[in-house]
Amino acid sequence: MARALLSGLLAAGGTALARRGADVVVRPSDAADGRWTRTNHRGAPISLLEGPAVGVGLLAGAVACPGRLAAATALAGAGGLAFGLVDDLAEDTRRARKGLRGHLGALVHGELTTGGLKVLGIGASATLASAVLTGRPSRGTVRWVVEVLTGGALVAATANLVNLLDLRPGRALKAVGIAAAPTLLGAGAPAGAAVLGAAAAALPRDLAERDMLGDGGANALGAGLGVAVLASTGPRARLALLAGAVALTVASEKVSFSEVIARTPGLRELDAWGRRA
Fold this sequence. Notes:
- Helix 1 (2-25) packs antiparallel against helix 3 (50-62) and helix 9 packs antiparallel against helix 10.
- Strands 1-2 form a two-stranded antiparallel sheet.
- The chain is an all-alpha fold and 277 residues long.
- It is built from 13 helices and two strands.
- It has one domain (2-272).
């Protein structure tokens, strides 16, 4: 528990410091020309600098994790941040593809979009993180491969799902916090605490509609959450969670999460908590 507490504190502190530093490093002209700015659901400008800050905070928290968990959290978080930022900053909005189906469809036709690169890159880093966390084969190579691929798919799917929730202030961060809390009782506690610390540090500016996670921050936090879940669960639970994440991802192609939340008592109030009226 002491290690988890240290991990959470390092993540929170790292996120706060990185966010302050981002305002110094990023030139006003870069912020003004839209490179680090997006339009939120109200049509107001909002900064993407929260994403890199959260990624740095997660990596700082990973330092306090033990052995393979530290390496897996860092690999997954760094992969989510790097490939998410590529999609944030280099996407050709004139030819943008929407959703996972759009990016995969482009890949099938030989077109590599920034979103497609993100899918491949996060898939690769998530699988590598899963392999590191699983360790050397001890019960047969085939079983090891299945475990690694299942774990990698869970980490990647979690990263994507958190990104899908980053449509309203605080929504993705609240979801990450709720999902990470149970991992504090398992072997993935230090990684879960790092995710919670980074999310908590970012929440005030996110709710105030000054910052948003963007793909970089959402994918980094989601990948870190996936590692924490992976370390805290057994094979059956991982399969069930993976099936749930895939089902929600598929559903998002047809159903608006925002509309479902707005119609559901409890979820509606939780989603609106802390947000500007």
